[in-house]
């Protein structure tokens, strides 16, 4: 098992290399080139010598006039922990261990590593809250629909699940903000951000002050803010999962082992939860690897709609300004998350189904 | 040496024999026809088809449904039709194509393939001819008609149902921005004072074209890639699978962020670039399906027969193997159209997609205005259009999948 995991981890490297090379080529070949917007913005306002100086600065910092392969090589050198150190003029000095860096954003003039370190936890927080909710809803409704197959719950559900799955995330987000979070209609939820302006002065937990005023505290404040985004993210995916659970449970309920269990006189609930549900787990695990990447894509949308400073918003802004380092970092991290979730899926397979073995 | 007559090689037996195949009386029903009948037996697929046909009609007749130019007007005692003069080459081509489609649909005697090729030929000729001959005025001044009617310069004017073109910013009307629905503007107005209903009708063109063209690009690329990978195997397969793995290892929306500068720097061609990019990125999943199908078909007898007959590679791949491995592609095409529309609207919504034309996504984006103001008509209508279109394609896709799934067929 350990060798298998190690091999899979090593196999990720060529995939990630190919992916970043693809992204790099696309950005370099696109009209305007890497950082074109930044150059145009800087060169558009200033004349002659000034523009030339800014151009020279960009050239020195990002080497945008070097051949493509050289630029990509430099970027790889920068992100790898082993490589050449550079001096201030971009010349290579010594070879050895160094601290890897993701470069500096052209738009925000800050190290991309810092930007990622700020935004990635927010995106992961959103996703890790969403996943259990998706599974809870999916498993509960799926089992219920399968158990009373053809009943009212099942038929209503069959009709609505495709509709829920087809619901565009952008529409759901806009509708929730319009009708539940704007001051023109129901102002139940905040429309933007992750906490109130005063969050830094809040206590961590909710409490009553001596004058019997209730204070939300930091934790509840965050919960209140992410309620709509999480609802948006989990909506489509849970409909998808429900359908999967229903199909899988139905298939197993008709299986020979379930009939045998019933013939032995095992209670129906036990058949369902101890026998059938365990065997349906495999389908649930398969889909977990598909859900996390789709949540990542979803958080690109959700974070932009709800103004949450996560990685999705960072990527969209980077795309708007053709910020090479930011896009490369976001795609790299997105790729790593997807590949790791695929690996985790394959490991969980073994845990859920003893018949599967990779050795 | 005996010559093998290839034309007598029969395709593998029909997996779905007609219910009374033994009867000589019944004409054999083709596989396509049977699948289509099974698919559109479902009420959901019928509703989906209805909605798609509806938005297609809206797309074709958009200039006759929403236009600031009067259909006919009388000025200085003379009748004229400003609308006809303002038609663009696109409008003319679409009208000719829809008329041709209607006529060819009725000509049931001619073979289907002939009709399809004639239709494609007509579209190409119509597009070229209309691009050369149809020259709409470069600058459109819409308020001349409204001012003319008020001042009496135009004594009579007949308008189409919605009196506003999508790019009519109503310069002559004071403060027409973001107004809720009224009788004149049945769906309200947008952030740049244009009529929302008119913009929505014209945006159907974007949704339909991006769905069809992106999916066609994806299918053609995916079938060629997957076919070669599955049939040839070896290093072609190895390299191809690595490519597939690279593109599947990251969500399409995130990968598309790298392509955004292409749309931004060529706003006029953004739609076409987007079609190709979305098509190319989604072609890899088709390649995977086709590869798997071709791998299993590779050792079938009819393929060996075709090889022994000395047929060229393209003929073996696309005339003999492809028809037998097409069903997963067809099912996924329907979901793929929905996906392409979703991606386009999402990119436009995020402000990194189409800029010159208004798509449903960019209209929806205007619903959340500055300072926390919201505009319900901009939230409800464009979003509903996206939702219904995606739902329609998904409904058809589900029905198609069930119709093509032999396992379900046996149970029925």
Largest interface: A-B, 55 and 50 residues
Number of E strands of chain A? 4
Question: What's the Cα radius of gyration of chain B?
Answer: 25 Å
Shape of chain B: globular
Low-confidence stretches of chain A: none
Q: Which series of helices and strands of chain A comes N to C? A: HHHHEEHHHEEHHHHH
Sheet of most strands of chain A: 2 strands, antiparallel
**What would you call the quaternary organization?**
heterodimer
Identify the overall geometry of chain A. globular
Helices and strands of chain B, in N-to-C order?
Answer: HHHEEHHHHEHHHHHHHHHHH
The number of distinct helices of chain A, counting runs of at least 4 residues, comes to: 12
Structural class of the secondary elements of chain B? mainly alpha
Q: Radius of gyration of chain A in whole Å, from Cα? A: 26 Å
Q: Any overview of this molecule?
A:
The complex is a heterodimer of chains A (359) and B (412). With 359 residues, chain A is mainly α. In chain A, the strands form two sheets. In chain A, strands 1-2 form a two-stranded antiparallel ribbon. In chain A, strands 3-4 form a two-stranded antiparallel sheet. Chain A is built from twelve helices and four strands. The mean pLDDT of chain A is 80. Chain A has helices at 2-29, 36-45, 48-62, 68-79, 112-147, 152-166, 169-181, 217-253, 256-263, 268-305, 311-320, 324-352, and strands at 82-86, 92-97, 207-208, 214-215. Helix content of chain A is 70%, strand content 4%. By secondary structure, chain B is mainly α. In chain B, 63% of the residues lie in helices and 3% in strands. Chain B has 18 helices and three strands. The longest helix of chain B is centred in the middle third of the chain and has 37 residues, at 196-232. Chain B has a three-stranded antiparallel sheet with strand order 2-1-3. The interface between A and B is large, with 55 and 50 residues.
């Amino acid at each position: 098992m350990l060798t298998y995991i190690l091999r899979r981890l090593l196999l990720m490297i060529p995939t990630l290399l190919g992916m970043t090379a693809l992204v790099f080529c696309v950005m370099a070949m696109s009209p305007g080139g890497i950082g074109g917007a930044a150059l145009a913005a800087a060169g558009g306002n200033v004349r002659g010598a000034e523009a030339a100086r800014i151009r020279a600065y960009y050239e020195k910092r990002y080497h945008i006039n070097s051949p493509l392969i050289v630029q990509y090589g430099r970027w790889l050198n920068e992100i790898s922990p082993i490589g050449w150190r550079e001096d201030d003029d971009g010349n290579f000095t010594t070879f050895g261990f160094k601290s890897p860096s993701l470069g500096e954003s052209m738009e925000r003039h800050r190290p991309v590593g810092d930007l990622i370190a700020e935004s990635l936890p927010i995106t992961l927080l959103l996703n890790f809250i969403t996943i259990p909710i998706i599974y809870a809803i999916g498993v509960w409704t799926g089992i219920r629909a399968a158990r009373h197959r053809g009943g009212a719950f099942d038929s209503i559900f069959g009709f609505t699940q495709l509709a829920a799955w087809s619901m565009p995330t952008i529409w759901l987000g806009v509708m929730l903000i319009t009708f539940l979070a704007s001051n023109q209609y129901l102002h139940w939820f905040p429309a933007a951000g992750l906490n109130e302006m005063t969050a830094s002065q809040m206590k961590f937990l909710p409490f009553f002050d001596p004058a019997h005023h209730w204070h939300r505290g930091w934790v509840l404040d965050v919960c209140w803010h992410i309620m709509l985004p999480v609802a948006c993210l989990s909506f489509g995916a849970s409909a998808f999962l429900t359908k999967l659970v229903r199909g899988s449970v139905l298939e197993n309920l008709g299986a020979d082992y379930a009939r045998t269990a019933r013939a032995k006189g095992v209670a129906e609930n036990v058949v369902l939860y101890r026998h059938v549900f365990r065997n349906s787990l495999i389908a649930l695990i398969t889909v977990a690897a598909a859900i996390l990447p789709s949540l990542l894509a979803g958080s690109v949308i959700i974070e932009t709609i709800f103004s949450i400073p996560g990685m999705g918003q960072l990527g969209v802004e980077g795309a708007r300004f053709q910020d090479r380092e930011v896009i490369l970092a976001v795609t790299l991290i997105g790729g790593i998350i997807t590949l790791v979730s695929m690996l985790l899926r394959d490991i969980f397979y073994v845990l859920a189904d003893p018949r599967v073995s990779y050795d | 040496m005996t010559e093998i007559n290839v034309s007598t090689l029969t395709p593998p037996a029909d997996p779905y024999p007609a219910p009374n195949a033994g009867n000589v009386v019944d004409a054999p029903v083709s596989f396509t026809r049977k699948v289509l009948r099974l698919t559109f037996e479902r009420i959901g697929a019928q509703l989906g088809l209805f909605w798609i046909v509806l938005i297609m009609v809206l797309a074709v007749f958009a200039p006759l449904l929403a236009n600031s130019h009067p259909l006919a007007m009388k000025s200085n005692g003379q009748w004229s039709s400003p609308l006809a003069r303002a038609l663009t080459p696109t409008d003319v081509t679409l009208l000719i194509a829809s008329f041709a489609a209607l006529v060819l649909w009725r000509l049931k005697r001619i073979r289907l393939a002939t009709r399809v090729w004639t239709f494609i030929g007509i579209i190409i000729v119509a597009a070229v001819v209309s691009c050369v001959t149809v020259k709409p005025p470069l600058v459109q001044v819409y308020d001349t008609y409204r001012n003319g009617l008020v001042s009496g310069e135009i004594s009579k004017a007949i308008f189409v149902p919605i009196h506003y073109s999508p790019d009519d910013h109503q310069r002559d009307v004071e403060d027409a921005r973001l107004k809720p629905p009224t009788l004149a503007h049945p769906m309200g107005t947008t952030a740049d004072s244009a009529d929302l209903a008119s913009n929505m009708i014209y945006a159907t063109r974007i949704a339909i074209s991006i769905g069809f063209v992106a999916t066609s690009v994806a299918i053609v690329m995916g079938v060629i890639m997957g076919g070669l990978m599955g049939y040839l195997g070896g290093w072609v397969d190895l390299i191809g699978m690595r490519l597939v793995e690279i593109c599947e290892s990251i969500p399409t929306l995130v990968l598309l962020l790298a392509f955004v500068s292409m749309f931004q720097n060529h706003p006029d061609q953004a739609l076409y670039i987007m079609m190709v990019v979305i098509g190319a990125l989604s072609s890899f999943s088709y390649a995977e399906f086709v590869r798997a199908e071709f791998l299993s078909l590779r050792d079938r007898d009819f393929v060996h027969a075709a090889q022994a007959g000395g047929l060229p590679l393209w003929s073996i791949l696309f005339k003999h193997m492809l028809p037998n491995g097409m069903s997963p592609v067809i099912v996924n095409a329907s979901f793929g159209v929905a996906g392409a529309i979703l991606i386009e609207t999402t990119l436009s919504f995020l402000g990194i997609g189409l800029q010159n034309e208004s798509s449903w996504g960019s209209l929806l984006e205007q619903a959340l205005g500055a300072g926390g103001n919201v505009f319900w008509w901009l939230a409800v209508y464009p979003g509903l259009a996206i939702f219904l279109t995606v739902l329609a394609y998904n409904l058809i896709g589900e029905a198609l999948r069930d119709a093509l799934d032999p396992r379900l067929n046996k149970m029925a």
